[in-house]
Write a structure and sequence with these properties.
The complex is a heterodimer of chains A (235) and B (280). Chain A has strands spanning 3-6, 9-13, 16-23, 26-33, 36-44, 49-55, 67-78, 83-91, 93-99, 104-110, 117-120, 127-134, 148-157, 163-171, 178-179, 184-194, 197-202, 212-213, 229-231. Chain A is mainly beta. Chain B starts with a helix and ends with a strand.
Chain lengths: 235, 280
């Protein structure tokens, strides 16, 4: 499903179906779920190509947050000064773009997963985050790429104490998603600075080959500040 | 030409000539046009980058600065001595201060409101019983648009000295329902059904977790309290949606919402009968 498709086309996966028809410059996009039409859009455009790609998992049911929290299914205890990679999952949201030479425009976002949100911190100073609970893997898992992606998280304990880590919070402005036909990947690191403080940063590149970088939909209005997130309300 | 020069050179007050007055007027007209142009272009270019409150404050600072510069420039043009003016201004200030205490009070309160910022443009607030959305905060007064669309002007001194409830300054807020079910229905099952509804709702926050518990055994019903946290931008939509959904789902599962009722015992010579009276 991921990648460019020439219009007209019909793309199906499980109970979802995308239909694109063209008539001159008019393009009609329809999304069906269990044979019921959910979305219909009319586009006027010259190019007859669409791109299907994963997007930041923060757009559904509507964009209200710029942070994404992954809670571990069980806490992990880290030895002092240790570094180790673990693998987590995240829910995929799929973006449908209409393409032209200069600019791709998003026309639809959908997902096969339910959405939930949570508050990290207190109501005054905390942040509302998209919430996801994930199993923790120590080898890269094989997942259905239209449903789940992989977060390769480097855990780094920079303290001289044993620490327990049970969640990480990613800043949406920094999320870089890489994908191919079989896998969707985010690479990040979480540096524990204190028993209850950590800094999380998503990497701009991936160490894995033959992966395409997805478009970033969530960008800052003014480019100031870091894309890291400092978890001050507990880890 | 000579006549024009004569007219322009005529002194109207002290050393201030007609030409000086014209120059001052032109300076202020120019300043006014400049502020409007800047406002127009700033709104166009910055609207997508700054929120309403930040943009309003930025434009106020720019506009006031332009007029202050214009004022000082015009004083220099007419040759007024600023240091002499300050002495006279100090004495005049005391007189004006006594004469216009409430206006000065509003002005000072407005400055402190802009510094402390307990409310911002676009926020829903309650100021001493006036509830609505903040439309503008100026130096003297604050404009509130109430829920009926009426515009209310509150002097800043009143705003500053009143209890202000800001409904949207935090990231999340809680709301609650009381759901009364019949005594013969299973409260554990009702709680489980309500929890399932809340778990499926995206904007019902995982943390702080919703609270669902039997809060009282009333005259007519077993009362279940449901306390839900939602993001500040979504809580009201949740509140509108969930209560009816809870009611329908409970009834689909055979749990009814209780209504007021009385148990009536009839006592005659031979038998005692127990009838439950229901309203028609």
């Amino acid at each position: 499903m991921y990648g460019s498709h020439i219009i007209p086309t019909i793309i199906s996966h499980e109970e979802a179906r995308l239909e694109l028809e063209a008539s001159g410059k008019k393009i009609v996009y329809r999304r069906f779920l269990k044979e019921q039409k959910i979305v219909e859009k009319i586009i006027i455009g010259n190019k007859k190509k669409i791109l299907i790609s994963p997007v930041e998992p923060l757009l559904l049911p509507k964009e209200i947050s710029t942070h994404f929290m992954i809670e571990f299914s069980q806490p992990i205890t880290l030895e002092p000064h240790i570094k180790h990679d673990v693998y987590l999952t995240f829910p995929i949201e799929i973006g449908v773009y209409v393409q032209n030479e200069n600019h791709d425009s998003i026309i639809d976002v959908f997902s096969f997963n339910e959405q939930k949100y949570t508050l990290y911190g207190d109501p005054r100073q905390g942040v509302v985050c998209r919430y996801w609970k994930s199993e923790v893997y120590f080898e890269e898992p094989e997942l259905a790429p239209l449903h789940f992606g992989i977060v390769k998280l480097r855990l780094e304990n920079n303290t001289s104490n044993w620490v327990d880590v049970s969640r990480c919070v990613l800043n949406a402005f920094g999320i870089k998603i890489f994908y191919n036909e079989v896998k969707v990947l985010i690479e990040a690191e979480m540096k524990v600075i204190d028993a209850a403080i950590a800094e999380v940063e998503v990497f701009n590149k991936t160490t894995q080959k033959k992966m395409v970088k997805a478009h970033e939909l969530i960008t800052r209005k003014i480019s100031l500040g870091s894309n890291r997130f400092v978890m001050l309300e507990g880890i | 030409m000579k006549e024009l020069q004569t007219i322009l050179g005529r002194k109207l007050f002290a050393e201030i000539t007609v030409l000086d007055i014209i120059q001052i007027v032109l300076i202020f007209v120019f300043a006014s046009i400049l502020t409007r142009l800047i406002s127009y272009y700033m709104k166009k270019s910055m609207k997508s980058r700054l929120n309403k409150d930040q943009l309003g404050l930025f434009l106020k600072v720019v506009n006031y600065s332009i007029f202050i510069v214009a004022f000082i420039w015009s004083l220099g043009l007419v040759g007024l001595n600023l240091s002499g003016l300050m002495v006279a201004g100090g004495i005049a200030g005391i007189v004006i201060g006594f004469a216009s205490q409430s206006i000065v009070g509003n002005l000072i309160s407005g400055i402190f409101l802009m510094m402390e910022r307990p409310i911002k443009i676009g926020e829903s607030v309650d100021i001493a019983g006036t509830v609505g959305i903040v439309e503008n905060i100026s130096l003297i007064s604050t404009l509130i648009r109430d829920w009926d669309g009426l515009l209310l002007r509150i002097p800043n001194e009143k705003v500053f000295t009143s209890t202000i409830t800001n409904f949207v300054s935090h990231k999340a807020r809680r709301f609650s329902y009381d759901v009364g079910i019949r005594y013969q229905d299973d409260a554990d099952e009702a709680i489980s059904i309500i929890r399932t509804i809340l778990d499926k709702e995206a904007f019902v926050l995982v943390n702080p977790a919703p609270l669902i518990f039997v809060t009282s055994l009333g005259d007519n019903a077993v009362n279940i309290t449901v306390k839900i946290w939602g993001p500040i931008t979504e809580w009201y939509g949740l509140k509108q949606k969930l209560l009816w959904l809870i009611k329908k789902t409970l009834e689909e599962n055979g749990i009814e919402i209780a209504f007021p009722q009385r148990v009536v015992w009839l006592n005659n010579a031979s038998n005692s009968e127990n009838l439950t009276a229901k309203p028609e």
